[in-house]
Known about the structure:
By secondary structure, the protein is of the alpha/beta class. The chain has one domain (30-203): Aspartate Aminotransferase, domain 2 (3-Layer(aba) Sandwich). The chain is built from seven helices and nine strands. Strand 4, helix 6 (133-143) and strand 5 (146-150) form a beta-alpha-beta unit. Helix 3 runs parallel beside helix 4 (80-88). The longest helix has 14 residues, at 30-43.
Amino acid sequence: MIPVFKPPYDERELEALKEPFRSGWIGLGPKTKEFEDKFANFTGVEYAVGVNSATAALHLALLAAGVEGREVITTSMTFVSTNMAILYNNAIPVFPDIEEDTLNIDVKEVEKRISPRTKAIIVVHYGGYACDMDPIMEIARHRGIKVVEDAAHACGSEYQGRKLGSIGDIGCFSFHAVKNLATGDGGMITCRSPQYDSRPRKLRWVGI
């Protein structure tokens, strides 16, 4: 078997694991909070909420955006989690075409598929390559539509000097083993608004 990707871990990661194991904080705890704070600062947002996967991040982001019963414009060129999260929220995925050269969502096609039922747009920065965010944000702001950035491929990537995951209303990240920042698994929600911080933070662990 040929692995898709092998994370380059060494003794530093093994050493870093000793502290949470000794303290007993192996779930949500001080290290999670430290990671959230550092990731928010790195991304250039006010808030970051650690979750168990990017799938969970997308699920909670769309829940916070209130998409239930509405349409969500999304991309057909993505891992299944992006669009399953729409269905988890009892919303309807709407698929515009993608750009031939970038494989990212085509802005012109997005605009054609907006309807009175459109509540949100999910953009996927495919392969770490940024979607054309300025026109997408202009379309969304003009119509009161929320923008969720699926930045699972794009930790550290930028669009015109801004980190991806900081431009839309909510950003969603993956730290799965095949990603460029791999923590074994896990995900993160990033946002600037306390509204999009508080609800996912409560719901990420059965409302506690």
